[in-house]
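> call design_seq(struct)
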C-alpha cells in the first residue's frame, strides 16, 4: 500500500510522518496527550520522536518511535518492522474494555 501511495504521489496525513510530539509514555506504549488520556501517578508528558502507524480514535491509535519523515523512509522502516500495528492499540491493554472482548460480545 505504501509503495503505491509513493508511486502515485498520493498525499497522506502528516501524523504518519515522524516528528517530535508530546506523548504519554506508558511501558512500550506512546499515547497522544492531546486527548486527555488519564495519567497514572508520577506520569507526565514527554517529547518523543514518533509517528502513527495507523489512525483512529485515541484508543485504537498507537504511535511508534520513528525518525521516518518521508514516504521512502516509512517504506524502509516497514520492510524491517516485524510487529503488528495493532499491538499498539491502547484498548487492547485494558482487559475490561479490550477490542477482542468487545468483538466476542458482538459490538462489531
Amino acid at each position: 500500500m505504501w509503495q503505491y501511495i509513493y508511486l502515485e504521489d498520493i498525499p497522506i496525513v502528516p501524523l504518519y510522518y515522524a516528528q517530535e510530539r508530546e506523548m504519554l509514555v506508558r511501558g512500550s506504549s506512546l499515547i497522544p496527550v492531546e486527548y486527555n488520556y488519564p495519567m497514572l501517578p508520577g506520569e507526565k508528558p514527554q517529547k518523543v520522536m514518533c509517528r502513527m502507524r495507523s489512525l483512529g480514535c485515541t484508543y485504537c491509535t498507537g504511535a511508534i518511535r520513528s525518525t521516518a519523515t518521508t514516504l521512502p523512509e516509512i517504506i524502509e522502516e516497514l520492510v524491517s518492522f516485524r510487529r503488528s500495528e495493532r499491538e499498539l492499540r491502547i484498548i487492547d491493554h485494558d482487559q475490561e474494555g479490550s477490542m477482542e472482548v468487545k468483538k466476542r460480545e458482538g459490538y462489531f
